């Protein structure tokens, strides 16, 4: 077995995403399984170098996981020729500057979404990376979740006939932070820190819709801040200046209508934290993070509206579970594996910084649509 070591500078690894999803469940999980086996006698061995602002936190993390390299000096890490990839899961507002430095240092890039705080910055990163000839990728984890992979299988298998509409419901209650601690970072609720649910979730909806159903052509959104006062990590009250709910209608190429509610001020009466219902002429599906249920045209009941009678049909029972038919790994890890193969073997890859810029653009147009109270066209980014 030949071992190809890939050294990855991981910035923002003390944060929720950087630590749990990218370090522990992706790269350390890969090391635990002996590396990424390419099937031809080669194994890719990821070697994380932890980067961040707090020496104490980095040292503790490195010790906990038996890693020997960490640094609070990003410039020094980027100047090291031995580093192959720069990975960024910092707060969104810190990303653009760090990624630009990494491009200048000639590193391949893999970054969390949103790739920048606005479309101009996101496109600039895509252009600079292209010109520098480095490989670049953006996290689009939802595509690799079991529920959405089953949904893709249905689309590709022609299950739906003509797709008519997509209804997405995402959200849960995020505690205000006074009597119960908030379960998300406080910067998410401050516009001045690049927070907001549209900035956070519209990039996800852009690639989910684009990849499964077609490019988004128009957006009409209503953003609001339902909870105007929250308490931060230290228990100090602050004004929540960013949107905590975004109600969006997206028209896709071919006339498909997608309507997605995103909210951190909703209580869950669903089976999963996100669910998409897709209705087509031949059948419908409801997909969550893990499960996917279908109802074929031939099995569709014939309800008759009569409010004077109790419900006559067990509607939820009339759906059929889509089987796994495969072992699904963690979605973040699955995408990391493809990116590492792209870097080492030049295998195909489409989730790049240009794709990331589309998501940032949609978030920005959603915000503008809400401010101006009108529907906006969604151009190809840069046009
Ligand atoms: N792919 C997904 O599903 C997903 C989910 C949540 C968040 N994210 C993205 O991941 C990124 C990190 O989000 P998170 O929820 O892990 O945030 P977090 O607050 O838990 O972590 C932020 C990280 O950035 C670092 N940081 C650097 N500069 C900072 C600064 N000036 N102020 C505060 N922290 C700073 C922190 O030390 C920490 O390591 C965001 O860009 C977010 O949009 C992606």
From TrEMBL:
Q: Report if keyword Oxidoreductase is assigned.
A: yes
Keyword field contains Oxidoreductase: yes
- InterPro entries hit by this protein: Gfo/Idh/MocA-like_OxRdtase_N (IPR000683), Gfo/Idh/MocA_oxidrdct_glycsds (IPR050463), GFO_IDH_MocA-like_dom (IPR055170), NAD(P)-bd_dom_sf (IPR036291)
* The protein's name in its UniProt record: Gfo/Idh/MocA family oxidoreductase
**Entries under Pfam families matching the protein:** GFO_IDH_MocA, GFO_IDH_MocA_C3
**Highest taxon listed in the record's lineage:** Bacteria
Gfo/Idh/MocA-like oxidoreductase N-terminal domain location is 50-137
Q: Which UniProt keywords apply?
A: Oxidoreductase
The GFO/IDH/MocA-like oxidoreductase domain covers which part of the protein?
149-285
